[in-house]
Amino acid sequence: MFNRNPIQKIVLALVSILFTMASFSAFAVKVGAIYLDSQGFYGGIQKGIMVAGADEGVELIGNNSQGDVTKESEFIDQLIAAGVEAVVMSPVSVEASVAAVERLNEAGIPVICYNTCLSDADSERLIKALVTTSQFDLGLPIGLLAGEWAIKAEIDLKIGIHNCNIYEACQLRQDGFIAGLEQSGANFEVVNNQEAFAHDKATQIGTDILIANPEINLMWAANEGGTVGAVNAVVAADQVGKTYVMGTDTTSELINMVQQGDVLLAVNSQFPQDMGAGAMRYALKAIKGEPIEQYLQLTPTKVYTTLDRLATAKWLVDHADGLP
Predict the structure, then answer these.
(1) Taking every annotated instance into account, which residue ranges of this chain make up the domain Periplasmic binding protein (predicted)?
(2) What is the pLDDT of residue 34?
(3) Residue 61 near residue 243, CB atoms below 8 Å
(4) 59 strand-pairing partners
(5) Is 28 exposed, middle or buried (0-12, 13-18, 19+ CB in 10 A)?
(6) How far apart are CA 278 and CA 299, in angstroms?
(7) pTM of the predicted protein model
């Protein structure tokens, strides 16, 4: 019997390991992921996608479109060339993203939407599933809460809004917020409503709004960046104690602001990690040819207020990495 020396054994072991790794890489399922931007919400989406994919040995190829249709289109072409077997994405535009998604369809690559998607007609022919939040319900409870707050405080609401209505989902959030105000029976007037959903731009736009309209006593924002910008604007315009903020989504920064309670009174949170994981699970079903029984999967929401300190403290413990 041939006895190998220790060095030969080590070399053979390394070769075996490298062969196994190469085999895994060659046969691993490839999934493409496109993130709409880099804000905290999408960090949570990315974590959910990565964790769910890791459980199945997925090779994930991800990129950030930064809300740019041209970049999104380029990334999709790269994913097709890379031989991905499915794509999970939040399309930049209901209309302008269609052509790139059609190329995926022509290449036989199933697409799963999360958060946002295409029109109903285009989704029916091009998309396997959508994992999202009820966007209307994301705004509704904050509108109700704002109205109840105003009634108890015996004030008429003068409202400024930071919207992200270039996305259909955000328009639905705003519709829900307004519906909640109406249901509450509070007296309110929307004094100023502008697109402001990126942190830096939202801060400047919000500051300009409050300087021009100091009578505004409540700012509402439809997303994380708009909410942070609204809080910053209240401070910059010297409106602390005069203007309060209610908003959308959670990060460690926002939850800490809610706990402080001098400006940000409440946020309605999505669960982006659940959303990302759900999208990846549907992508794997599509790859395996398994039936997807339900096109629409809704993830829950939860309102966090400055009065519920136990809930906000728990959020910070549960999200020690800062991702929602």
Answers:
(1) 38-290
(2) 97
(3) no
(4) 30
(5) middle
(6) 9
(7) 0.85
How many DSSP H helices and E strands does the chain contain?
Answer: 12, 12
Report phi then psi at 35, rounded to 5: -100, 140
What number of other Cβ atoms are within 10 A of residue 55's Cβ? 12
Look up tokens 């409503």; give the residue. Answer: 193
Under 8 Å between Cβ of 91 and 119: no
Give CA separation, 34 vs 102, 155, 268, in Å: 16, 44, 25
Pick from 78, 54, 52: nearest CA to 65: 78
Domains of the chain and CATH, by start: 7-133+272-300 (3.40.50.2300), 135-270+304-318 (3.40.50.2300)
The single-letter code of the amino acid at 156 is D
Tell me which amino acid residue 19 is.
F
Q: State pLDDT tens for residues 6-39.
A: 444 443 344 343 333 333 444 589 999 999 877 6
Sequence letter at residue 29: V
Name all contacts of 286-294 with Cβ < 8 Å and 24+ positions apart: 286/86, 286/110, 286/112, 286/128, 286/129, 287/29, 287/31, 287/85, 287/86, 287/110, 292/128, 292/129, 294/129
Task: Kindly report the length of the chain.
Answer: 324
As a 3-state breakdown, the chain gives helix, strand, coil percent values, each rounded to 5, of 50, 20, 30
- DSSP helix/strand/coil, 132: strand
